[in-house]
Specification:
about 675 residues; mainly beta; 5-stranded mixed β-sheet; 6 helices; globular
C-alpha cells in the first residue's frame, strides 16, 4: 500500500513542478490594489489550500461566521446547519445531530476540525454526537459537490470544516482580544455560554477557549409518538407533551500557543470535551415490554491534541507549506439511566495529518499538492458490541490546479487513496482514484457560470463490512458484508452566480450516479427481537437543486431592508426503490432590517411532506416554521449585542424526515431565547 502511495505522490509532485515551471515562463500579474474587488472578495476556504474568491468557486460553498454563531441557538452541528441550502439534520435529540448533505449522511459526510478528521465515532451511528461543538468555532465551512475531492472518499457527499483559533495563526489585536456569548431558552430551560481569548503581540501568542451548554427535557406541541406510528404498531401514546430523557450537559475547554512571525506560524493546542446526553425513547402507555432495558444516556469524552503551521518558502515551484495534524482519544459509553450501569463502550484512538505544498501563483495559475494520512484503532466493548475491533490505515495524495484567465478558467483535481481495515480475523484493502474537472465562464460583469464533472470513490467502513449484532441506535440487527467493494460516483454540477449591487443570486443543478451504492435494508428476518438489516450494494441515482437569493429592497443611510430566499430539493432512487431518509424540499423566506444599532429578522420556512419513502419507512408531514430575532446594541459603535430570538413561534409539530427518531422525537416546540454577544 505504501509503495502505491509513494508512486502516486511522486507522480503528482512531478506534475505540479512541470505545470509551475511552464507557468513561471509567463510574467507574474501585478498585485491588485488593496481596495480592488479581487482583494475584498478573496477568502481562503476549505475548498482549496490557496485563496479563491467565494464568487468564483465552481461548486457550492457556504460559510457560517462567528457573528452568526454568536446569536445562533446552542445545538449540535447538524441542527446548527439545518436549513442551509441542501442541508438537513439527523436530529437524534438535542444531544446528537450530524449534517445531512444532499440526502446523504453518516460515512458519506466528512466532519473536519481545522482540515483534519474528528477521530470520533459520530459517522458510524446517528446517536453518536460529533466531538466538536459549533460554540467553539470561529467559522464553519460547508462544501458540496466536486470541491470535496481534496478530502477523500469519506467526503463523497459533502465536507463540513469546523475552524477555530485554538492554535493562533496571527497576533492578538492590541495584544489582547476575545469574545463571550451566552443565552437562556424557555422550551428546555436551556443555558449556554462560550468564549475565547487570544493574547500576545508575538512572536509567542496564546489562546484559551471554553464552551458550556446544558438543557432539560424539551416540550413539543403534541404527544411525541406520531399517529402514523401508533396506528401501524398498535400503540397507545403517552399524551405528555415533553420528550423525555433529552437533557444535555456539554463542556469543552482548550488552550494553545503559537510562534507567529512575518512569514508564518507554528503552534500546538489541547482540548477536552465531556458531554452527557439522554437518548429519546418510545413514550407509550401500552403495550409495555417488561424486558425493555429502560432509558439510556450517553457519556462522551475526548481529549484532542493538535499541531498546525504555515510557512512561506521559496522551494522550487512552491511558495508555501501548510501542516495540520490531530491526535485524539475518544470514548462513548452507553449508561442505563435507572441503574447507572455502563453498557456498550465505543473507543477510538487515532492520529490524522495533512501536509500541503502551495504553488507559486503565475499568470492566473494556482495549485497545490497535498498528502494525508490516518491511523486509527476502533473498538466496541459490551453486550451490544456488534462491530469487532478494527485497525484502520488511510493514505492519500492529491493535487488541485486552477487557471483563471479573467473571463474564463478551469479547476481540476486528482487524488489517490488507499485504505486498509484489519480485524483479528481478516484484512481488507481498497484503492480509489478520484478526479474532477470544472470549466467556468464570466459572460458579463457580476456573472459567473460553471460546469463541473467529477468521479469519486469511497471505501466501505468497518460497520458496513463487519457489523453483526443488535444496534439500538438504528433499531435493527445489523449485518455487514465483508465482500463489499468501493462505492463509485460520477457527478455533474452546473453553477450560476450573479453578484450585483442590490441583487445576489446563486443556483446549483446537480446529479450523481452511483456504481455500488452501499445501503442497508431489512431482510424480513428477526433476531434478538429486532428486524435484521443487511448491508449490500446496488446502483443509485440522486439529483437536486439549490437556490439562494438576496435583494436589497431599500437603503437609507446606514439602514437597509433586505429580502432573502433559500430553496433546495433532492431526489434519490436505487435499483431496489427509494433510499431511506431522503429529505423533502425546503423553502425559506426572510425579511431582514439592518441598522447601526438595531437588526430585526423574520423568517418563514416551509418544508414539504415526504410520501416517497422506503418500504420500511413511514411518510412525514410537511410543516411551516416561523422564527424571529431582534438584535440591539445598547451603545452605538459598541461591541456588545443583546438579542431576543423566537423559534417555532406558531408551535408547529416538526418531524425531520432524515431522523431515525422522527416518529417519536419531534423537534422542540415554541421557544423564546434571550442572550448577549460581546467582543473585546
Amino acid at each position: 500500500m505504501l509503495r502505491r502511495v509513494a508512486f502516486s505522490a511522486a507522480s503528482l509532485l512531478a506534475l505540479a513542478a512541470a505545470v509551475s515551471a511552464h507557468a513561471a515562463d509567463a510574467p507574474a500579474p501585478a498585485a491588485p490594489a488593496p481596495d480592488s474587488d479581487t482583494e475584498v472578495s478573496k477568502v481562503v476556504i476549505t475548498a482549496a489550500p490557496y485563496a479563491v474568491s467565494l464568487d468564483t468557486v465552481t461548486s457550492s460553498v457556504n460559510v457560517i461566521t462567528r457573528d452568526q454563531l454568536d446569536v445562533a441557538p446552542p445545538a449540535g452541528l447538524g441542527d446548527t446547519l439545518n436549513g442551509q441550502p441542501g442541508l438537513r439534520s439527523t436530529f437524534y435529540g438535542p444531544g446528537a445531530s450530524r449534517p445531512v448533505i444532499r440526502g446523504l449522511s453518516g460515512p458519506r459526510v466528512m466532519v473536519l476540525e481545522n482540515g483534519v478528521g474528528q477521530v470520533d465515532a459520530s459517522s458510524l451511528s446517528p446517536d453518536h454526537a460529533v466531538a466538536s461543538d459549533p460554540g467553539e468555532a470561529t467559522r464553519v465551512e460547508v462544501l458540496r459537490g466536486p470541491s470535496t475531492l481534496a478530502y477523500g472518499g469519506s467526503g463523497i457527499g459533502g465536507v463540513v470544516n469546523i475552524i477555530d483559533e485554538r492554535v493562533p495563526s496571527s497576533p492578538a489585536a492590541n495584544g489582547f482580544e476575545g469574545r463571550v456569548a451566552g443565552s437562556v431558552s424557555s422550551v428546555d430551560d436551556g443555558k449556554a455560554i462560550n468564549g475565547s481569548a487570544k493574547f500576545g503581540k508575538g512572536p509567542l501568542v496564546f489562546a484559551i477557549d471554553a464552551d458550556h451548554r446544558e438543557s432539560s427535557d424539551y416540550d413539543v406541541p403534541t404527544a411525541p409518538v406520531s399517529s402514523r406510528l401508533a396506528r401501524r404498531d398498535g400503540l397507545t401514546p403517552d399524551p405528555d407533551k415533553t420528550v423525555k430523557n433529552t437533557d444535555v450537559e456539554m463542556d469543552a475547554y482548550g488552550a494553545g500557543v503559537s510562534y507567529v512571525h512575518d512569514s508564518g506560524f507554528f503552534g500546538v493546542s489541547v482540548k477536552k470535551t465531556d458531554t452527557t446526553y439522554g437518548v429519546p425513547y418510545l413514550q407509550v402507555l401500552a403495550p409495555i415490554d417488561p424486558d425493555a432495558e429502560g432509558p439510556v444516556s450517553i457519556h462522551l469524552q475526548q481529549t484532542r491534541y493538535d499541531l498546525r503551521g504555515e510557512q512561506d518558502v521559496d522551494l522550487g515551484p512552491f511558495a508555501k507549506i501548510r501542516l495540520s495534524a490531530g491526535h485524539a482519544k475518544y470514548e462513548h459509553a452507553e449508561v442505563s439511566v435507572d441503574s447507572g450501569e455502563v453498557g456498550t463502550r465505543f473507543l477510538s484512538d487515532g492520529t490524522e495529518g495533512r501536509l500541503e505544498l502551495v504553488q507559486k501563483e503565475r499568470d492566473g495559475w494556482q495549485g497545490a499538492v497535498g498528502f494525508q494520512a490516518l491511523e486509527r484503532h476502533f473498538s466496541a466493548i459490551g453486550d451490544e458490541a456488534f462491530v469487532p475491533s478494527t485497525d484502520i490505515k488511510e493514505y492519500g495524495v492529491f493535487t488541485l490546479q486552477r487557471l483563471d484567465k479573467g473571463v474564463w478558467g478551469l479547476d481540476a483535481g486528482l487524488r489517490f487513496d488507499s485504505r486498509e481495515l484489519k480485524t483479528d480475523f481478516t484484512k481488507k484493502s481498497f484503492d480509489n482514484v478520484s478526479a474532477s474537472l470544472g470549466l467556468f465562464y464570466k459572460p458579463a460583469d457580476h456573472q459567473f457560470v460553471a460546469l463541473t464533472l467529477s468521479r469519486n470513490g469511497r471505501a466501505p467502513t468497518e460497520f458496513e463490512l463487519f457489523a453483526d449484532g443488535p444496534h439500538p441506535g438504528t433499531g435493527g440487527y445489523e449485518v455487514g458484508d465483508a465482500d463489499l467493494k468501493s462505492e463509485k460516483v460520477t457527478s455533474l454540477e452546473a453553477t450560476y452566480r450573479y453578484t450585483g449591487e442590490r441583487l445576489r443570486v446563486e443556483g446549483h443543478l446537480w446529479g450523481a450516479q452511483y456504481d455500488g451504492f452501499i445501503e442497508e435494508a431489512p431482510t424480513g428476518a428477526v433476531q434478538d427481537d429486532l428486524p435484521v438489516f443487511q448491508y449490500f450494494q446496488t446502483d443509485a441515482k440522486f439529483h437536486g437543486a439549490e437556490l439562494e437569493t438576496s435583494y436589497v429592497a431599500w437603503r437609507g443611510g446606514e439602514n437597509t431592508l433586505k429580502l432573502e430566499g433559500v430553496y433546495d430539493y433532492v431526489r434519490g432512487k436505487t435499483d431496489l426503490g427509494v433510499p431511506a431518509r431522503v429529505p423533502p424540499w425546503g423553502l425559506t423566506g426572510r425579511v431582514v432590517w439592518s441598522g447601526p444599532r438595531l437588526d430585526v429578522q423574520t423568517e418563514v420556512r416551509r418544508v414539504g411532506s415526504q410520501n416517497r419513502v422506503a418500504d420500511f419507512e413511514l411518510p412525514t408531514d410537511g410543516y411551516t416554521q416561523v422564527n424571529a430575532m431582534v438584535t440591539f446594541k445598547p451603545v452605538a459603535d459598541s461591541a456588545l449585542r443583546l438579542f431576543v430570538d423566537g423559534r417555532n413561534l406558531t408551535n408547529e409539530t416538526i418531524r425531520e424526515h432524515a431522523s431515525f427518531l422522527k416518529d417519536f422525537a419531534p423537534s422542540p416546540g415554541r421557544s423564546v431565547r434571550a442572550g448577549f454577544a460581546w467582543r473585546f
